[in-house]
Amino acid sequence: MKMPCILPDGSITETAKKVLAVAMTEKSVEEIAKGSSLPLFRVRSSIRELIDAEFIAEKNGKYLTTEKGKEKI
Amino acid sequence: MESEEEFKMPLLGDEAPDFEAQTSQGKLRLSDFKGSWLVMFSHPGDFTPVCTTEFMAFAELAGEFKKRNCELLGLSVDSAPSHIAWVRNIEEKTGVKIPFPIIADGNKEVAKKYGMIHPGQSATETIRATFIIDADGILRLILYYPLTTGRNMQEILRCIDALQTADKHHVATPANWKKGEKVIVPFPLDQESAEARLKEGYECIDWYLCKKELKKE
């Protein structure tokens, strides 16, 4: 099953872009939800996929967009 | 002998069984909703008349659910592409945008976990089941409707109001209660409290049935 955050051509969805943009500095899930105006459940599911794609990294419960992720915004 | 897997239906007060499922908005887990209340509801099938009216009614009240920190999550055994096509069709024909995800439960994994298949109604489709799950993931209310009867969304909102009011103020709510109306003061559990109850300034029919106003928020 294709990941909904990441499209077949390697680009990412608007939802994923919003998450990555807010996580340019370390943020919690709640902070990303607030900063992106996305519901918590969308942020959590997007983060899972963005971690798998190495576009975002987790450290002590906070999330930060990686260099690879920054290229996608 | 044919083996049949047994499923224990979750009961009120149980932790709602977690799952990971494909939805019209990507792969979601129940635990993704933690911190929000959730109305998870099943419908028999996409592109069917009663279900279409229900989805439109849920969508029209989506803002009211949001105000109550409550998300919506639909489910049927149809595929994700079918859900997407149906949602697009509803918007195209009626102008109503469906903002919430819908689980594509083709293998009935979630439906079985939650007892959404009632063979007396249909062995292949999910009935109209509604589960209200609180922000801690606890199953708080279950409603089952048959295939032919569309749900009343105002009743679902009213149930959320009643549950959230009971949690916040440690009270109960009477029959046909609506937000803003008087609530029931907890039942006294000993004789001394029962005798004191009538002197506490509540509106009482007798010691066991007393109501009070809640402060306006």
Describe it for me?
By secondary structure, chain A is mostly helical. Chain A has a single domain, classed as Arc Repressor Mutant, subunit A (Orthogonal Bundle), CATH 1.10.10.10. Chain A has helices at 14-22, 29-36, 40-52, 67-70; strands at 56-59, 62-65. Chain A has a two-stranded antiparallel ribbon. In chain A, β1 and β2 (62-65) form a beta hairpin. The mean pLDDT of chain A is 91. With 217 residues, chain B is of the alpha+beta class. Chain B has two domains: 20-151, Glutaredoxin (3-Layer(aba) Sandwich), CATH 3.40.30.10; 170-212, 2-Layer Sandwich (Antioxidant, Horf6, Chain A, domain 2). In chain B, the strands form three sheets. In chain B, strands 5-4-3-6-7 form a five-stranded mixed sheet. A three-stranded antiparallel sheet of chain B has the order 8-10-9, with no helix packed on it. In chain B, strands 1-2 form a two-stranded antiparallel ribbon. The radius of gyration of chain B is 20 Å and the shape is elongated. The interface between A and B is medium-sized, with 14 and 14 residues.
